[in-house]
Design brief:
alpha/beta, 14 helices, two-stranded antiparallel ribbon, 12 strands, 37% helix, 395 residues, single chain
Length: 395
């Protein structure tokens, strides 16, 4: 890949509780239309479409974009668990950088069912069966509880057992998320909470309480990417570029040493971050703003370390010093993150990209990170798919 890829436009609809009844085709089309409008383009100028989602039948992407037009272009549907939207962007970026198309549209959407995530196919091998076996070696799995929180409850316990962090350290992440979401009109939960609120909310699994777990959410987001030449030709806003991006799965040593922290993707995060820092020629200390995958409070803490924002085992001090918020070392999840904004699986990665783009443009309003020029996006799907993207303001 030898050409820079620009973010020409982004769009996002406000996330909602599943009970609001949002339909994936309507919100997906609305987010895509918003991204095209932001770019100043019409749908017939797009050469390829990549659609990310989890809870939907095949060719749902076509159902969404056919509302914008039917132009015969390729539409690719991507399912990579919670990293589906970012995986769609990863494919679109490659297509543009390699010259397969000058302009691509990426869409992420999800019409989520209420309640905890459950398996939809019980007549065939489960994709996470090996992970489940490994988890049972290190954690007392309760078959009556939803599985996903138990992975992260196990990781939380392992982290608490091996560092000086406490349950208050974890709870502080949720408090910060709500504080940031207060100024984000697209977030589901915007009311402030306290440490006591977090710790006294109902237990979900292990030390994790309800307010430490992201809510099921419906929503959609989109981004238009293009070449520099295409942007010049059409007079597009060329201020934000994808400087580096990587997607990884697990390596063969994952199950060798039982660790819940490893099972939830910490190694993938670390390796992928190392790759993008090297590709971009930057250091973690250079990053101004981060949107990371805080599906549970513990995952935000693990990601601080995986991205090199703090030293291994240093999250408690990082949080206590306020280095994860405004006025500190780096602003993490100014949007409120998954914990407050919500987590419609296929939309999350592209919603993160939209937030970082707004921050780098200087158009994030009351949640603007002053002088932001370099942003990082991190999106993780169990099983495993990890994406890290560095975006840069060019002018």
């Amino acid at each position: 890949m030898n050409s820079r890829v620009l973010i020409a436009g982004v769009g996002m609809v406000p996330f909602t509780k599943p009970s609001a009844g949002a339909k994936y085709d309507e919100i997906g089309a609305a987010a895509a239309a918003a991204a095209l409008k932001d770019a100043g383009l019409s749908y017939d100028q797009v050469g390829q479409v990549y659609a990310g989602y989890v809870y939907g039948d095949s060719t749902s992407g076509q159902r969404v974009v056919y509302q914008l037009g039917m132009t015969r272009i390729p539409v690719l549907n991507v399912n990579n668990n919670c990293a589906s939207g970012s995986s769609a962007l990863w494919l679109a970026r490659q297509a543009v950088a390699n010259g397969a198309t000058e302009c691509a549209l990426t869409i992420g959407f999800e019409q989520m069912p209420p309640g905890a995530l459950t398996a939809k196919w019980n007549d065939r091998p489960a994709p996470l069966s090996a992970f489940m076996s490994a988890l049972e070696d290190v954690y007392p799995v309760d078959p009556a509880l939803p599985m996903t929180p138990q992975y992260f409850a196990a990781a939380a316990q392992e982290y608490l057992d091996t560092t000086d962090s406490t349950v208050e350290t974890l709870a502080a992440v949720a408090v910060k998320a709500r504080t940031h979401a207060r100024t984000n009109p697209r977030a589901v939960f915007r009311d402030p909470i306290t440490l006591e609120d977090v710790l006294s909310s109902p237990t979900v699994a292990g030390t994790l309480t309800r307010l430490q777990c992201c809510p099921p959410t419906s929503g959609a987001a989109a981004a238009v990417v293009c070449t520099e030449e295409f942007a010049r030709k059409h007079g597009l806003d060329a201020r934000v570029a994808i400087t580096a991006q990587a997607l990884e799965s697990d390596d063969e040593g994952l199950f060798d040493s039982p660790s819940a922290i490893a099972l939830v993707g910490s190694g993938v995060t670390r390796r992928t971050a190392d790759r993008v820092y090297a590709e971009a020629g930057v250091d973690p200390a250079d990053i101004d703003v981060v949107e990371l995958h805080d599906c549970f409070t513990i995952n935000e803490i693990l990601t601080y370390e995986g991205l090199g924002l703090c030293e291994p085992g240093g999250a408690a001090k990082f949080i206590a010093d306020g280095d994860n918020t405004y006025g500190g070392r780096v602003v993490t999840n100014p949007s409120g993150g998954l914990l407050s904004k919500g987590h419609p699986l296929g939309a999350t990665g592209l919603a993160q990209i939209a937030e970082i783009t707004w921050q780098l443009r200087g158009s994030a309003g009351d949640r603007q990170v002053p002088g932001a020029r370099l942003g990082l996006q991190h999106n993780l799907g169990l099983g495993t798919a990890g994406v890290v993207t560095i975006l840069e303001r060019l002018s």
